Amino acid sequence: MPTTGTTSATERATTTSAGDGDDLRVRYHRVRGFTEDLSEPLSPEDQTVQTMPDVSPTKWHRAHTTWFFETFVLAPYRRGYTEFDPAYAFLFNSYYETVGPRHARPQRGLLSRPGVAEIGQYRGAVDHAMDQLLVAGTDQAARVTGLVELGLHHEQQHQELLLMDIKHVLAVNPLHPAYRPFERPPGIEAGPNGGATWIEHGGGVVSVGHAGDGFCFDNETPRHEVLLSPFAIRSNLVTAGDWLAFITDGGYREPTLWMSDGWAIVQAQEWEAPEYWIRADDGWLIQTLAGPRPIDPDEPACHVSWYEADAFARWAGCRLPAEAEWEVVAVTRGNPPLVAPEAPSATGLDDAGLAGSGLHPAPPAPGDEQWFGAVWQWTSSPYGPYPGFQPEVGAVGEYNGKFMVNQQVLRGGACVTPAGHSRTSYRNFFPPAARWPFCGLRLAVDR
Amino acid sequence: MPTTGTTSATERATTTSAGDGDDLRVRYHRVRGFTEDLSEPLSPEDQTVQTMPDVSPTKWHRAHTTWFFETFVLAPYRRGYTEFDPAYAFLFNSYYETVGPRHARPQRGLLSRPGVAEIGQYRGAVDHAMDQLLVAGTDQAARVTGLVELGLHHEQQHQELLLMDIKHVLAVNPLHPAYRPFERPPGIEAGPNGGATWIEHGGGVVSVGHAGDGFCFDNETPRHEVLLSPFAIRSNLVTAGDWLAFITDGGYREPTLWMSDGWAIVQAQEWEAPEYWIRADDGWLIQTLAGPRPIDPDEPACHVSWYEADAFARWAGCRLPAEAEWEVVAVTRGNPPLVAPEAPSATGLDDAGLAGSGLHPAPPAPGDEQWFGAVWQWTSSPYGPYPGFQPEVGAVGEYNGKFMVNQQVLRGGACVTPAGHSRTSYRNFFPPAARWPFCGLRLAVDR
Amino acid sequence: MPTTGTTSATERATTTSAGDGDDLRVRYHRVRGFTEDLSEPLSPEDQTVQTMPDVSPTKWHRAHTTWFFETFVLAPYRRGYTEFDPAYAFLFNSYYETVGPRHARPQRGLLSRPGVAEIGQYRGAVDHAMDQLLVAGTDQAARVTGLVELGLHHEQQHQELLLMDIKHVLAVNPLHPAYRPFERPPGIEAGPNGGATWIEHGGGVVSVGHAGDGFCFDNETPRHEVLLSPFAIRSNLVTAGDWLAFITDGGYREPTLWMSDGWAIVQAQEWEAPEYWIRADDGWLIQTLAGPRPIDPDEPACHVSWYEADAFARWAGCRLPAEAEWEVVAVTRGNPPLVAPEAPSATGLDDAGLAGSGLHPAPPAPGDEQWFGAVWQWTSSPYGPYPGFQPEVGAVGEYNGKFMVNQQVLRGGACVTPAGHSRTSYRNFFPPAARWPFCGLRLAVDR
Amino acid sequence: MPTTGTTSATERATTTSAGDGDDLRVRYHRVRGFTEDLSEPLSPEDQTVQTMPDVSPTKWHRAHTTWFFETFVLAPYRRGYTEFDPAYAFLFNSYYETVGPRHARPQRGLLSRPGVAEIGQYRGAVDHAMDQLLVAGTDQAARVTGLVELGLHHEQQHQELLLMDIKHVLAVNPLHPAYRPFERPPGIEAGPNGGATWIEHGGGVVSVGHAGDGFCFDNETPRHEVLLSPFAIRSNLVTAGDWLAFITDGGYREPTLWMSDGWAIVQAQEWEAPEYWIRADDGWLIQTLAGPRPIDPDEPACHVSWYEADAFARWAGCRLPAEAEWEVVAVTRGNPPLVAPEAPSATGLDDAGLAGSGLHPAPPAPGDEQWFGAVWQWTSSPYGPYPGFQPEVGAVGEYNGKFMVNQQVLRGGACVTPAGHSRTSYRNFFPPAARWPFCGLRLAVDR
Q1: CB–CB contact A116 B45 (8 Å)
Q2: Cα C385 to Cα B320: distance, rounded to the nearest angstrom
Q3: CA-CA distance, C438 to B432, in Å (whole number)?
Q4: Closest residue by Cα to residue B124 from B35, B42, B50
Q5: pTM of the model
Q6: Over pLDDT 70: what percentage of chain C?
Q7: Do residue C229 and residue B388 have CB atoms under 8 angstroms apart?
């Protein structure tokens, strides 16, 4: 939810976006269209399957993001709007208790209807109504700006989820099909990693959390002070080559490196490498969205759980950074608080990324410290409310706050995070056993 | 597997089918085409979903039946045949240990690829190769006749499974979609049930099991003698109206009517009516392949487990018939040992049934005792080998024998059983808790 | 339940046991005392533990058998009887739905109270009241004879269960403690097995089921005719040495030997030998009630499931006998319909057996075909009602009938079956995966 | 593990405890004896049962604490010591991977042997050897002081666990037996709660963590600075009466009050009140260690999970305190950093508490703010390492560090926490769904 301090989403939207009606309409169609671009290589069968409870079918993502606009924008603000299908509220509500009952999450893959074609019609109908609502300069457009902004960021989150999920769907298939072939983009090449260093920070009282007028989710607020001890953080990500050394050294067989809960999972699920690594006769392959290929030791380690990241850091004689440590250093390294959509494709996925190799974390280009655009980075911080945190009033208040236990914070952004959806204050979060996000790590130490 | 006594399938086929090459080729295409007719109303999404471990996706049925011909006929007997895709042996083997490892059954719904289009191509390629193999009068055609015969009956079994399975897929969907609308066929109307009677049998030594030259599965042999006590069996099926009386009388709440295992399931799964009955404000609806509609008290009770059938019989002061009792009476009631494809549509599903209301068990026409063509009928007999039973040698020997424990025999045939696939000696079997087959019952008593 | 044909338990008891009051009183105390003898080596801790849902704690067995007399004899027939503790009806009812709700079976091991001492008092109080009721020649004694008879056979069944269960409790303990040390009884030695033969039977119509006036359970009735084909059955049991050959030949790794359900369990539970066999560096040990010791190749194979027995028979080119085949041959081999308590200890457990090695199946003495007294013998017969079977009216009618599905029949009796509790018509039954009973097999073939 | 900064446990022990040999020997016997006092009312059966995976049998607690001294003190430091039974290392190791494999936790209740008597002998033998080791003024006594100190605090933790666990064992028994009757201690009476207030704190940089020379666990170090915002915290605990208001207002039915994970458990486990509350016809009973009795609205709410505590705080318009907030205020309210054993019984369990009503949290005496001695108090803080935290080297380093994820911190101490085992810096921790500890809460708000 967009909020800064005590200003509500609606108020802020009115203030900050006045006159932006047309821009918003353009952005609405651009973001919505990008979801369709992502779905385009997928057959109706691909879009239907759910391979584990965490995964949702592609067609569900496409419908759920549409339901979000229908429910929170069109239904309350568009006079005379009639819902596309009354049954959809039950089928496509994800977790909003306030809005009503819903279809059980682990059963999303049991539904063949509505099919891909019907969901395409649903998207079209809602986009048409939204287009009429978002006429620049009108009162109604001004009233909904904050909610539309939220809906677009919500849709961008689901664009990344869609890619995470379809990667899992294709990877469990013994045929190992590709989502789309990669082309290496012209003119980008990996730099030597020799320049990686420790970035020192002297500690003290620092400010973290969202600042300024731009959009943010409610969990990034309020901006507040934190007291840090001196520490250092790496200028580079842990690589696949580093991870091979960890495996070779018996990292997955040495219990003293692991949290107790993590060790239990290592044994129960027989983890011996990151998710999507495939042991081959002559080394390791890695399953990408372009199918399996040999591992590049310079690419960032990816698809590791927090348990693995924490064990790796302990093995390396280091630790994970706290989220505040990550944030204050990231700002000093030249990352603007808002990583704008105009930033180069390395900082997020867009059409160029789709055409290039943007669907897999690449080795760093010379000078790129990969704070954004490669992998989400696990921190040592459990996900909780900032001091003074207040969720939004109403159903959208369920967006973030009710997940603030049993999760760990990740910072940065991944190659599959849509361009324009990253911020230094952004707080992503997953349970410590999750491996299917594009998650890796960078190391820190006490000083 | 076709076998009588010690004659093997291949030998028998050579004997009984010589010169039938062309007929077989015609029948091959008719049966294979009917599978496609059944799949035609289903979208790619419909064909992909698996809603419980017992259910297989439609596209899996279409591929598996094709794999059967490819593996057991084309690979060994068609010179120079190259398999369509080497990965398919792993994906589409159902349970043949002898043939090799296979994809886990409960995970069939996790596979989006190969998709419906590719499976269509697979069917086409195999049908083309089979067509070339089955040239009348050739040696090779004669050699494979028995196996093709088996493959066609196998495919007919899967036609029924396909309908059972898609019924479940559509029924768990909160939208309750229809597979296809029913039209009542002209000229058929339900007869008064007043003429139903007890058919008496004096007991004694009787012969059961397959007789004659036609095709049968190995589990119907050898024909052998059984000693029966005097008994009587009903000339009609238990109806939905009868079942309503059982419900109203508290049948689902009275433990003494139930086997101990059955009562445990009644409580754990909160059974209170047959599968696909839906409690509505003003009575019961029933989910059909044409969607939900009110129950007709004259239609046969259907989708009841053996536990329910057994409890109902006890409540009624009767019992289920033994399979030998069912068979000897069925023969005396004018049912030929082989219910030929030319029999009226009431005895099995064909194109006419699809066009009419053949996808749901109808109230009986005047004089129809419904031994075939309405519902499978549970018997009191556990499924086991006949005295002297020998399974076929080789992989096809796994067809029936290895399931001969923990199952109960059903006799007759259902509205969704393909025409020409029924016999008085036919032994169907399911675990006692299964409800998704089209299964009902007729009553018996001791005399 | 005692019954022959249409004569009820109460009627028969009146007829057959008149004047036996004192004998019954003596037998009551002897049977009840033997339960206490069996419990004597067990500490309160031993008597409390439940190691799997099938196992009940010793103190539960002691209380449940007492509750049986209290509920079915004292409460209805002993004027002015007050139950020992009203809560016990809930705690110690096993499965009698008619009598009321009860504590869940898998949770019996969660109850520390009532303790062993209190259950001793409970047994004493009920025994005292029963002693007063069973005064010879009184009307009340005559009225309850049939039920007391049933209660004593019920208690004998639980004596065997108690031993089966405590064997499991001690065996899962890494310390492998002994229940009691064995002493080999003087004068018994194993005979050479060379004399084992096929016993031929020409088939035809035979009579099976309980005959005569003595006690039997309802499931042994009515006596009826069965038509058999010619067959032969072995004069000896399958031995541990035979089983070693099966293991060595890969019996546990060859799927075609197994029923499909059995093969799934072999893989899921990683079966590679009978229950209680322990792989040691230099061969196999076997866990007995006297602790682990090396296997004797001449001892009967024991603690094999029906799945294993069936697979073994297939491997040996034979089959399991049907229960009727077993019964008719057993009678011809000199086993009386009732194996009386006065028979030698080889046919059942008594004080002599406890003092000797009666707690483990021994190699056969010369000339002993081991129909009784060694191991229960799996048959090919699913457990079902005999033609014309009628369970008793009332709660005791739940004794046998409601288990007549999903189980296989065993015949004979084991070393831990109490003396006087065996009959040629006795039908024991367990699910096909059960291994903790003392169960083995003898082979049969078609002729 | 005892540690301050970089001083190791052994070093510190040498420094701080020189010449305390005899005192330590006295304390050793006092603590060890108190465990036996706690076990005294329990039968062998009571001491054997395990009612859920979190619960351990009493006899296991008694053996495991003994194994701790044997493994970490006697084996390495007592010349010529021979272990009591080599099998015990496997049976009574709780979770020390470094020490070797161990019996699975959820199966502790499957072990009847060793029995209570044998474990008593084990305790005696180890106590005898420890007594000889701990001769005042000897080198060997000095060397082990730190480890013995750790072992005694470890045993005190298990004293509390023993009571938590046996409470669960007795409570699931339908007979609802009492552990021991309570007597109200003379001269203590509940004070009016009217004086409860908000204790204000202005925030700023504060120091938290263990200070000084006394014993602490490694997770309380290093002492470090934290920046707090202004806040207020209640001077009293939430009471059972407060909780009744929450229930009555529908607190267990309103999803917006709950974390998403918590709401899932509320529904799955049908929570409607704290653990051990029993709905009676005329209100609520509460299961205590003296059996069930009506709720006293003035007693502290107890046996609530973190999910419930968090939901209650939200309902009340407040929040839970952070652990640093709790600690700094607790110190200012007159609680010494170490709550010494000489403190009044209200701050911990000892013989007086056993004789009185010390086994259940009492309403506060006048002026008692109940920071200690009533219930553990949930905080908003996830359990993690303090900045600069280093676990001890070796097996005892597994004591705390490997549990630092998926848990929430509790502060204070409960009525069942042994006297002398509480500190303002003490960090207890449990998963957010745990209810069987004696856990309650006090409220906080932002200022």
Answers
A1: yes
A2: 12
A3: 28
A4: B35
A5: 0.91
A6: 90
A7: yes
Q: What was the pLDDT predicted at D393?
A: 77
Whether cis (ω within 30° of 0) applies to the bond prior to B114 is yes
Q: Which two tokens stand for residue A256?
A: 């003293």
- pLDDT of A71 strictly over 90: yes
Q: ipTM value of the model?
A: 0.90
Beta bridge partners of A205: A227
Strongest mean pLDDT among A19-23, A296-300, C183-187: A296-300
**Cross-chain Cβ contact D44/C49 below 8 Å:** no
Chain C residues within 8 A of B387 when measuring between CB atoms = 229, 446
Smallest Cα distance from A311 to chain B, Å: 32
B–A touching, 3+ CB–CB pairs within 8 Å: yes
Answer whether residue C49 shows pLDDT above 80. yes
SS (H, E, C) chain D: CCCECCECHHHHHHHHHCCCHHHHHHHHHHHHHHHHHHHCCCCCCCCCCCCCCCCCCHHHHHHHHHHHHHHHHHHHHCCCCCCCCCCHHHHHCCCCCCCCCCCCHHHHHHCCCCCHHHHHHHHHHHHHHHHHHCCCCCHHHHHHHHHHHHHHHHHHHHHHHHHHHHHHHHHCCCCCCCCCCCCCCCCCCCCCHHHCCEEEECCEEEEECCCCCCCCCHHHCCCEEEEECCEEEECCCCEHHHHHHHHHCCHHHCHHHCCHHHHHHHHHCCCCCCCCEEEECCEEEEEEECEEEECCCCCECCCCCHHHHHHHHHHCCCECCCHHHHHHHHHHCCCCCEECCCCCHHHCECHHHHHCCCCCCCCCCCCCCCCCCECEEEEEEECCCCCCCCCCCCHHHHCCHHHCCCCEEEEECECCCECCCEECCCCEEECCCCCCCCEECCCEEEC
Task: Give A231's Cβ-side CA count (13 Å radius).
Answer: 24
Tokens of B23: 């007929």
d(CA B21, CA B24): 5
Q: Does residue B172 sit at the A interface (CB-CB below 8 Å)?
A: yes
Closest partner residue to C111 among D44, D90, D173, by Cβ?
Answer: D173
- D258/A402 touch (CB, cutoff 8 Å), yes or no: yes
The average pLDDT across B5-18 equals 36
- Chains touching chain B through at least 3 C-beta pairs below 8 angstroms are A, C
* pLDDT score of B309 more than 80: yes
Which is more confidently placed, C386 or B184? C386
* Range C128-156 average pLDDT: 93
Q: Are C98 and B256 in contact (CB under 8 A)?
A: yes
Q: State pLDDT tens for residues A142-183.
A: 999 999 999 999 999 999 999 999 999 999 999 999 999 887
For residue D415, the tally of other CB atoms under 10 A from its CB is: 27
Q: Quote the radius of gyration of chain C (alpha carbons, Å).
A: 22
Annotate C143-205 with DSSP letters as a single string: HHHHHHHHHHHHHHHHHHHHHHHHHHHHHTSTT---SS---PPTT--PPPGGG--EEEE--EE
- Rounded to 5 degrees, φ, ψ at A283 are 125, -160
Mutate to test the interface with A, among D261, D406, D430 (most CBs of A within 10 A): D406
Q: Which of A351-365, B337-351, B374-388, D5-19 has the highest mean pLDDT?
A: B374-388
Does C6 lie at the interface with B, CB-CB under 8 angstroms?
no
The predicted-structure confidence for C383-415, as pLDDT tens digits, reads as follows 999 999 988 777 778 888 899 999 999 999 999
Do B112 and A172 lie within an 8 Å CB cutoff?
no
Say if CB A134 and CB A148 are below 8 A apart. yes
Distance from CA of D118 to the nearest CA of C (A): 12
> D268: distance to nearest CA of chain C, Å?
20
Cross-chain residue pair D115–C45, CB shorter than 8 Å = yes
